[in-house]
Design brief:
The complex is a heterodimer of chains A (326) and B (421). By secondary structure, chain A is mostly helical. Chain A has twelve helices and two strands, in the order H-E-E-H-H-H-H-H-H-H-H-H-H-H. Helix content of chain A is 70%, strand content 2%. Chain B has 421 residues and is α/β, with parallel strands linked by helices. Classes of the chains: A mainly alpha (326), B alpha/beta (421).
Chain lengths: 326, 421
């Protein structure tokens, strides 16, 4: 009886000690996290909730606190005419909005795909041993380090049709026969934006992938070499699967970034249908037009789309953020 | 890291509060050309006369659409940092709620200003801004080239296109590959609304929304005027004109690479500067018309000085505004910047006539000025303007014809208007 009881206590105290230790650790961790959580709630949570609230009102920028609650009218509303025909209005049936969604998706998919491929190539080169590798690695980061607004303005002068260096260069090389208005024409405007974005963010992609590449153990390659496997096969069968987690995380960062593209397009191209993205159109409604609530609805929808996309991506791609693979 | 930046932020905001003094004024300005340097000189003269005040200029981008978005945001947030705003002639009704009523402070001097301009800055019986200079664009032409090819100054848009084409081709054949016939402002922004309003109005196509609020833009003459402009893109105007603002077109012009340019008066003084390739080679005239018998049109522009309702130094801010619009400053502005005065008397000043002969000449242009529909459309003006310039920009980029886009525009404007503007 006593023995049993003693044994029972022993057995019981063991996890208790552990859990107490755990508890104090968790509590300590919580305290360390609190400042960050509070900061996040202030700078991200509160504005987000405010935006969602504004999207359900008829607030005007002239009178931010005087809006009335109107439900989902900004998203979708309808009136039935006397003839019995129902007319829909609101964001969900606004062709300008869906055009912007199309532009954004097109931009995001193309830019992220190309950046991943080029970034991978750059990372493979940088992963090789060569003299001055440190300097090259640092140098390649320069486009990423320049603020977007500065690089956009810089490129807009380089791409300028009359004074731009790109036209001058291509003309003297004989690639084009007359000056091209890169950012002005609807056909080339999106391409110009893509080129500048790829120039700017490929280094970011390359560095994240390079970090993944360096975690690949050397002995795997040695084994492949001894077995005489073709280098291309080594890349697809060994390297790619092993860096996949790093690539997946890099892609998601870029995708989130690309979905809310604003500055580059705003500075580089005329404010036309061909390049207007979701962020550009919502800013226009928020501040330029007297449609603050409508712009808030667009921002909210943009947020929801990014959230859903990210969720799907993590779920379908089985991404883990701790670097491992599921 | 987070903590550090937080502390830094706190420290900075504390020091910012500490440096605010009774009459520390901030004035925002987004201008073209040498406007900023000129204002710097004005501010120095002001501070010499009022040593107790300190004035700082906050420069803004030169695109009026960009400025407006920022100002509206600041004003909506009740920003107390900016005391004086330079405002476009079209903003008065949209910003009126946030600006100080200047009626009382200016009652002794307001009689000297052009009544029409004062009227444009009055919203709901409140004078929201003091006119600093007015603006009306003109057609700049290269008199040396017209002489060389034996051409007269074009009176209609078609004449302009024909002359431009001939001289452009002639000059290109003579070796100047970069020569263009006509440069203007085709980017999708407020400037295109101004340009296109002139094409439409001077062809008898109305002024988008008439003073009584009627939407008049969907008519054959307007569509033909915009289609005509579409024909210029890529022939007498570079394709890049679709991304040009005032400064880009002035760049082409001032390098001597254009026969004609549509621009505001500020380009006159700059074009005659020492570093200009077209110095003493050009002149200005009223913009062409659609067909003989039509009246020329020039979009009424102009800049005004407004005091923010949220400024803590109301008296000092009003003092600064009055100083910047005073007869002496307007005279200097007319001579140095070729900006059109808003005071009637300055046009007859013998010094101005001697040193800037263009100013009295511009009276003709100014008399043809047509206002943008900012009065009748009120708070919705920006959206009206944006819909209009988008329809025009679409047509110019070959995305539908003028008639198609204007029909669509009419439908959108009608929906936007609702029961009343």
């Amino acid at each position: 009886m006593t023995a049993e009881a003693t044994a029972g206590t022993v057995v019981r105290t063991q996890p208790q000690i552990k859990s107490e230790l755990m508890k104090s650790r968790v509590a300590a961790a919580m305290w360390f996290l609190v400042p960050m959580l509070v900061a996040l709630a202030i700078v991200a949570g509160w504005p987000l909730l405010r935006t969602i609230y504004f999207s359900l009102t008829n607030t005007s920028l002239n009178d931010l606190y005087g809006g009335d609650f109107v439900g989902f009218k900004n998203y979708l509303s309808w009136t039935t005419l006397k003839s019995g025909r129902t007319v829909f209005s609101g964001l969900l049936v606004d062709p300008a909005w869906w055009n912007a969604v199309g532009n954004t998706l097109r931009f995001a998919v193309i830019s992220v795909t190309l950046e991943t491929v080029i970034g991978m190539i750059v990372a493979l080169v940088l992963n090789a041993e060569f003299k001055g590798r440190g300097i090259v690695r640092a140098a390649i980061l320069i486009p990423w380090a320049i603020p977007t607004i500065v690089s956009a303005k810089m490129w807009s002068w380089m791409l300028n049709d009359q004074f731009g260096i790109i036209n001058d260069l291509f003309l003297s090389l004989g690639i084009i026969s007359q000056k091209v208005a890169w950012t002005a024409t609807a056909d080339t405007a999106m391409t110009a934006v893509l080129i500048v974005d790829i120039w700017k963010t490929t280094p970011f992609m390359a560095l994240l992938i390079l970090a993944g590449l360096q975690m690949v153990p050397k002995d795997v390659y040695e084994a492949a070499k001894i077995d005489g496997v073709h280098p291309v096969k080594v890349f697809f069968k060994v390297t790619l699967p092993l860096v996949r987690p790093a690539v997946m995380v890099a892609v998601i960062f870029r995708l989130l970034d690309a979905m809310r593209i604003f500055d580059l397009i705003y500075v580089l191209t005329p404010n036309s249908k061909a390049t207007k993205t979701m962020s550009v159109i919502s800013r226009e409604n928020l501040f330029d037009f007297d449609k603050f609530a409508y712009g808030s609805a667009q921002s909210t929808l943009l947020f929801l789309m990014i959230a859903v996309m990210t969720g799907l991506y993590i779920w379908l791609g089985k991404v883990r953020f701790d670097g491992g693979d599921r | 890291m987070k903590m550090k930046s937080l502390m830094l932020g706190l420290l900075m905001s504390v020091s910012a509060v500490a440096t605010v003094q009774a009459a520390d004024l901030q004035i925002v300005l987004g201008d073209t050309g040498t406007g900023l340097q000129f204002l710097q000189g004005q501010v120095e003269r002001y501070m010499a006369a009022n040593p107790e005040d300190k004035v700082t200029i906050v420069p803004m981008p030169s695109s009026t659409s960009d400025q407006f978005g920022q100002y509206k945001l600041w004003l909506a947030a009740g920003n107390t940092d900016i005391d004086v705003y330079t405002t476009d002639v079209i903003w008065a009704p949209q910003l009126a709620d946030h600006l100080t009523d200047l009626t009382e402070a200016t009652k002794d001097i307001i009689g000297g200003y052009f009544p029409a301009i004062v009227e444009s800055q009055t919203a709901n019986g409140k004078l929201v801004a003091l006119p600093s200079f007015t603006d009306a664009p003109a057609l700049y032409y290269r008199k040396d080239l017209l002489e060389k090819y034996g051409k007269s100054v074009p009176k209609t848009w078609d004449e302009l296109a024909a002359t431009a084409k001939e001289i452009q081709d002639g000059e290109r054949a003579a070796g100047n590959k970069d020569m263009w016939g006509f440069v203007w402002q085709g980017n999708a922004y407020e400037g295109l609304t101004c340009d296109a309003l002139e094409w439409v109005k001077s062809s008898g196509g109305g002024q988008i929304v008439e003073p009584d609020g009627t939407i008049s833009i969907n008519n054959e003459k307007a569509a033909a005027a915009i289609d005509r402009a579409k024909g210029w893109v890529g022939t007498i105007s570079p394709e890049g004109v679709l991304a040009y603002g005032e400064e880009e077109s002035r760049g082409v012009w001032q390098l001597g690479n254009a026969v004609f340019m549509r621009n505001w008066p500020y380009a006159y003084g700059l074009g005659n500067g020492a570093d200009s390739a077209v110095k003493d080679k050009f002149d200005v005239t009223t913009l062409p018309v659609g067909a003989e018998g039509d009246a020329p049109a020039a979009t009424l522009g102009g800049w005004n000085l407004a005091v923010s309702k949220y400024s803590p130094d109301q008296d000092a801010a009003i003092r600064l505004v009055k100083f910047l619009s005073s007869p002496e400053e307007q005279k200097l502005r007319a001579i140095e910047q070729t900006n059109l005065p808003t005071l009637v008397a300055t046009y007859d000043d013998p010094d101005v006539a001697a040193k800037a002969p263009i100013i009295p000449l511009w009276k003709d242009v100014f008399l043809n000025a047509v206002p943008r529909p900012s009065g009748p459309t009120g708070l919705k003006y920006n959206e009206v303007s944006s819909l209009f310039w988008s329809a025009v920009h679409d047509t110019l980029s070959g995305n539908g014809t003028g008639a198609e886009n204007l029909e669509l525009l009419e439908a959108k404007l009608t929906e936007l208007k609702g029961d009343a503007w």
